[in-house]
Design a protein that fits this description.
Two copies of one chain form a homodimer. Chain A is of the alpha/beta class. Chain A has ten helices and five strands. In chain A, helix 1 packs across helix 10 and helix 2 crosses helix 5. About 3% of the residues of chain A have low confidence.
Chain lengths: 192, 192
């Protein structure tokens, strides 16, 4: 136990995933992002798209339906959360790594030696980035970002009871828009 | 205009003031903290203790009484805020510097090239630090810290309508408790 793990929470479009990958590469450790979804898929039997949607990218009503259904026992979401919890805990036990998203900061609290990072940027930076990087064609990328932000915050809040984006929950938070992706990578790498 | 200014907001006891002073020294620029209070005092005619209390260290009821009194025109606090606003704006116009507290991040928004920093640490770290550094003798430093946190957040919210400690309001937030004071100084110095 007590491997060193960098957990990265991030606003959609802020470059958090890229920063995670670049940092891991520099440090010669693995970065888990979509690999995590694959692991959860293979362990749970659900398909990857469902896990992605039911997780941070919850479709409209997911949280409220999860709450309603809970009266009748554990939901699919609770089942996935348990698997996610176990996979992330196992990873941290096995190796030092970077984990992007999936509430890893909360799951590994008191379990691993974590550097808890939050990456954010203003709307303009992120809107331009999702159009450029993901080729998003939406008429209003800003609306899509606002929606994503809301869902991620709600998901995080629901399962962790922590306020997403609140400085006090992290060791460091970085504005990738004003500081630049490279600077963020350098700072995290040096702190590790 | 467009000097480079580092603004440091901080939780009481987190070492934000020390980090500001050390960073300024390393960069060979000035750090304004208590000097700011002196300037506000000499410009306003109020004494330094009053300004300190009426500012971030507002005594119980200050905010509510400020709200009530406002119905009858501007209050002392509004008058002080205007002077503080002008002094901080003038400073940024005159020189590159570090400014600790006093909502400088908000005041200089769009006015100077700012690196907006927030320093925080957990209760245990801060409680030990205020006893060690300030020789606080309270039976419960934790209670005092909670009270200070509340006042600073309320003051900030009242005058700036920004959420204090929300990552999105800063370029970088640092946990001085887990990262260490020296690391914080290094990171800010390099980013400057």
């Amino acid at each position: 136990m007590k491997n060193r793990v960098i957990t990265i929470s991030r606003e959609f479009g802020s470059g958090g995933r890229t920063i995670g990958k670049m940092t891991a590469e520099k440090l010669g450790i693995k970065c888990y992002d979509s690999e995590l979804i694959q692991k959860i898929a293979s362990e749970s039997g659900f398909d990857e798209k469902y896990i992605k949607d039911a997780g941070e990218y919850a479709p409209g009503g997911f949280l409220s339906s999860a709450l309603l259904n809970r009266a009748f026992g554990p939901t699919n979401e609770d089942y996935l959360w348990k698997i996610q919890y176990k996979i992330i805990t196992d990873l941290a036990e096995k190796e030092s790594c970077v984990i992007v998203g999936r509430c890893a900061d909360y799951i590994l609290k008191d379990k691993a030696d974590c550097l808890r990072v939050f990456i954010h940027a203003d709307m303009k930076f992120r809107a331009e980035r999702i159009v450029k990087v993901y080729g998003e064609r939406d008429e209003s990328p800003e609306e899509r970002l606002k929606d994503k932000d809301k869902r991620r915050a709600a998901y995080h809040r629901f399962y962790t009871d922590m306020k997403w984006g609140h400085a006090q929950n992290y060791d460091i938070t970085l504005n990738s828009g004003t500081l630049g992706i490279e600077n963020c990578v350098d700072i995290i790498t040096k702190l590790y």
